[in-house]
Amino acid sequence: FIDKNGNIGSTDATSLLGLYNAAYLRTHGEKILDIAMSSTKKILKSIVNHLDPTIADEIRHHLETPLFRGTNRVETKRYISTYEKNSTRNETILEFAKLDYNLVQGLYCDELKDLTM
Protein backbone atom coordinates (compact mmCIF):
# COMPACT_ATOMS: atom_id res chain seq x y z
CA PHE A 1 0.00 0.00 0.00
CA ILE A 2 2.73 2.49 0.91
CA ASP A 3 5.65 3.00 -1.46
CA LYS A 4 9.22 3.89 -0.51
CA ASN A 5 8.34 7.61 -0.64
CA GLY A 6 5.54 7.17 1.92
CA ASN A 7 2.73 7.57 -0.62
CA ILE A 8 -0.33 5.37 -0.82
CA GLY A 9 -0.05 3.24 -3.95
CA SER A 10 -3.67 2.10 -4.22
CA THR A 11 -6.71 4.05 -5.37
CA ASP A 12 -9.19 1.21 -4.82
CA ALA A 13 -11.75 2.61 -2.37
CA THR A 14 -12.48 -0.73 -0.68
CA SER A 15 -8.78 -1.43 -0.13
CA LEU A 16 -8.20 2.07 1.19
CA LEU A 17 -11.11 1.70 3.59
CA GLY A 18 -9.66 -1.59 4.84
CA LEU A 19 -6.27 0.03 5.42
CA TYR A 20 -7.92 3.00 7.15
CA ASN A 21 -9.79 0.70 9.53
CA ALA A 22 -6.70 -1.44 10.16
CA ALA A 23 -4.58 1.63 10.90
CA TYR A 24 -6.85 2.42 13.85
CA LEU A 25 -5.46 -0.63 15.61
CA ARG A 26 -1.95 0.82 15.65
CA THR A 27 0.04 1.32 18.81
CA HIS A 28 1.97 4.39 19.88
CA GLY A 29 5.01 4.96 17.70
CA GLU A 30 3.94 3.01 14.61
CA LYS A 31 4.81 5.76 12.16
CA ILE A 32 3.88 3.78 9.04
CA LEU A 33 0.35 3.24 10.33
CA ASP A 34 0.13 6.89 11.42
CA ILE A 35 0.99 7.89 7.85
CA ALA A 36 -1.40 5.27 6.46
CA MET A 37 -4.27 6.59 8.55
CA SER A 38 -3.81 10.24 7.67
CA SER A 39 -3.15 9.51 3.99
CA THR A 40 -6.07 7.13 3.52
CA LYS A 41 -8.41 9.49 5.35
CA LYS A 42 -7.40 12.34 3.05
CA ILE A 43 -7.77 10.20 -0.08
CA LEU A 44 -11.10 8.73 1.00
CA LYS A 45 -12.50 12.20 1.73
CA SER A 46 -11.40 13.40 -1.70
CA ILE A 47 -12.92 10.49 -3.66
CA VAL A 48 -16.06 9.72 -1.65
CA ASN A 49 -18.31 11.99 -3.73
CA HIS A 50 -17.24 10.28 -6.96
CA LEU A 51 -18.00 6.71 -5.91
CA ASP A 52 -20.94 4.35 -6.15
CA PRO A 53 -23.48 5.46 -3.51
CA THR A 54 -23.28 2.15 -1.63
CA ILE A 55 -19.51 2.26 -1.03
CA ALA A 56 -19.66 6.04 -0.52
CA ASP A 57 -22.17 5.61 2.33
CA GLU A 58 -19.97 2.96 3.93
CA ILE A 59 -16.89 5.20 3.66
CA ARG A 60 -18.73 8.19 5.15
CA HIS A 61 -19.91 6.02 8.03
CA HIS A 62 -16.42 4.68 8.77
CA LEU A 63 -14.83 8.12 8.51
CA GLU A 64 -17.30 9.27 11.16
CA THR A 65 -17.21 6.11 13.32
CA PRO A 66 -14.24 3.77 12.79
CA LEU A 67 -15.13 0.09 12.51
CA PHE A 68 -13.58 -0.99 15.80
CA ARG A 69 -15.55 1.64 17.74
CA GLY A 70 -18.92 0.29 16.65
CA THR A 71 -20.74 -2.52 18.39
CA ASN A 72 -20.75 -5.82 16.52
CA ARG A 73 -24.51 -6.22 16.27
CA VAL A 74 -25.11 -2.65 15.11
CA GLU A 75 -22.36 -2.98 12.51
CA THR A 76 -23.81 -6.33 11.42
CA LYS A 77 -27.26 -4.83 10.88
CA ARG A 78 -25.74 -1.93 8.99
CA TYR A 79 -23.67 -4.25 6.80
CA ILE A 80 -26.68 -6.44 6.00
CA SER A 81 -28.48 -3.34 4.70
CA THR A 82 -25.43 -2.39 2.65
CA TYR A 83 -24.94 -5.92 1.30
CA GLU A 84 -28.58 -6.07 0.16
CA LYS A 85 -27.83 -3.25 -2.29
CA ASN A 86 -24.83 -5.10 -3.77
CA SER A 87 -25.68 -6.42 -7.24
CA THR A 88 -23.17 -9.29 -6.88
CA ARG A 89 -24.51 -10.44 -3.51
CA ASN A 90 -24.93 -14.10 -2.68
CA GLU A 91 -28.58 -14.58 -1.74
CA THR A 92 -27.84 -17.62 0.43
CA ILE A 93 -25.28 -15.75 2.50
CA LEU A 94 -27.58 -12.74 2.77
CA GLU A 95 -30.45 -14.91 3.99
CA PHE A 96 -28.18 -16.68 6.47
CA ALA A 97 -26.93 -13.32 7.81
CA LYS A 98 -30.50 -12.11 8.30
CA LEU A 99 -31.51 -15.34 10.06
CA ASP A 100 -28.46 -15.18 12.31
CA TYR A 101 -29.12 -11.55 13.17
CA ASN A 102 -32.78 -12.22 13.98
CA LEU A 103 -31.95 -15.30 16.09
CA VAL A 104 -29.44 -13.37 18.16
CA GLN A 105 -31.89 -10.49 18.57
CA GLY A 106 -34.45 -13.00 19.82
CA LEU A 107 -31.95 -14.34 22.35
CA TYR A 108 -31.24 -10.81 23.54
CA CYS A 109 -34.98 -10.20 24.00
CA ASP A 110 -35.35 -13.42 25.99
CA GLU A 111 -32.40 -12.49 28.21
CA LEU A 112 -33.82 -9.02 28.77
CA LYS A 113 -37.18 -10.51 29.77
CA ASP A 114 -35.42 -12.84 32.23
CA LEU A 115 -33.52 -9.95 33.76
CA THR A 116 -36.52 -7.67 34.14
CA MET A 117 -38.96 -10.20 35.64
From TrEMBL:
GO terms for molecular function: terpene synthase activity. Residues 1-63 form the Terpene synthase N-terminal domain. It comes from Aegilops tauschii subsp. strangulata (Goatgrass). It comes from the Eukaryota. Pfam families: Terpene_synth (PF01397). GO terms for biological process: terpenoid biosynthetic process. This is Terpene synthase N-terminal domain-containing protein.
